[in-house]
């Protein structure tokens, strides 16, 4: 029995690069798909939000000097590409996935319609939410919080490059230590950058817990879905 009936899984775009410099690493995406497939077999309904940082980010290198909103729309389009790649990898693995976009791009993917998304989930299909929230100045972490709340997910699972929430950015401060649990209030007060404050605040207000764990660690998703202690739980 899974510990959760329905989850919202946030996959880092940047982590999908694996050891590549850009784009999507086939082995990394195939491994993530296999892990998602395994948890669906437990009877867990899975919705996915995927980032775009492996292709384009509104606030990084390639966007210097650009109008921020324009750069953010490019970032959202990057998430559409990742979503298509992910859904196709799922198809190859024998999983049925549906991509729904927050921005109209009807010839490519169907638009996000909440009742339709709920129907797909009830049918056991994996739903991949593309284009983030559909708005510039937001992130795919916030999209994960938003869609997670909308579909009544019991938890937002953030699969990223680090294996939890640390006292400081572990990429910059090697003396940082990992929390096994932390409250939303403390994570916000300490300005911990593992997720943006908008995402934290939305989940806190909706009483939707977040678990942060490593996308690089094989079997971590399964352990989380089985209710085992993995990564960091951010709670109300
Ligand atoms: N307190 C912290 N605990 C953990 N990670 C942190 C913290 N502060 C900053 N980070 C950084 O946040 C990154 C994850 O956030 P982000 O870049 O938005 O990832 P994603 O691509 O998954 O959206 C980690 O790779 C880590 O280096
Ligand atoms: O609701 C959203 C979600 C994403 N983005 C843009 O899309 C980029 C890629 O998303 P994100 O950085 O969250 O991806 P990840 O960190 O997971 O790779 C962001 O930098 C933003 O420019 C946006 O404008 N609105």
From TrEMBL:
InterPro entries in the record: AceGlu_kinase-like_sf, Asp/Glu/Uridylate_kinase, Uridylate_kinase, Uridylate_kinase_bac
CDD domains: AAK_UMPK-PyrH-Ec
UniProt binding sites for ATP: 10-13, 53, 57, 160, 166, 169
Top-level lineage group: Bacteria
Pfam families: AA_kinase
Chain ranges of the Aspartate/glutamate/uridylate kinase domain: 6-214
Molecular function terms, GO-annotated: ATP binding; UMP kinase activity
Subcellular location: Cytoplasm
Gene Ontology biological-process annotations: 'de novo' CTP biosynthetic process; UDP biosynthetic process
Stated family: Belongs to the UMP kinase family.
Subunit and partners: Homohexamer.
Protein name as annotated: Uridylate kinase
């Amino acid at each position: 029995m899974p510990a959760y009936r329905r989850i919202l899984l946030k996959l880092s775009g940047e982590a999908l690069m694996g050891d590549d410099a850009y784009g999507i690493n086939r082995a990394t995406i195939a491994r993530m798909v296999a892990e998602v497939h395994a948890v669906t077999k437990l009877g867990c309904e899975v919705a996915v939000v995927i980032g775009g940082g492996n292709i384009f980010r509104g606030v990084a290198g390639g966007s210097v000097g650009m109008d921020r909103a324009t750069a953010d729309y490019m970032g959202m389009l990057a998430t559409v590409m990742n979503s298509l790649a992910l859904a196709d990898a799922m198809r190859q693995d024998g999983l049925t996935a549906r991509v729904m976009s927050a921005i109209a791009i009807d010839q490519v993917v169907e638009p996000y319609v909440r009742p339709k998304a709920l129907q797909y989930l009830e049918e056991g299909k994996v739903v991949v939410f593309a284009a983030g929230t559909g708005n510039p100045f937001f992130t795919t972490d916030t999209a994960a919080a938003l869609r997670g709340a909308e579909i009544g997910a019991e938890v937002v699972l953030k699969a990223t490059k680090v294996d939890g929430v640390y006292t400081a950015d572990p990429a910059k401060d090697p003396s940082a230590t990992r929390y096994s649990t932390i409250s939303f209030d403390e994570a916000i007060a300490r300005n911990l950058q593992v997720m943006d404050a908008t995402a934290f605040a939305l989940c806190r207000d909706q009483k939707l817990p977040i678990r942060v764990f490593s996308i690089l660690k094989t079997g971590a998703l399964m352990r989380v879905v089985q209710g085992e202690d993995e990564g960091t739980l951010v709670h109300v």
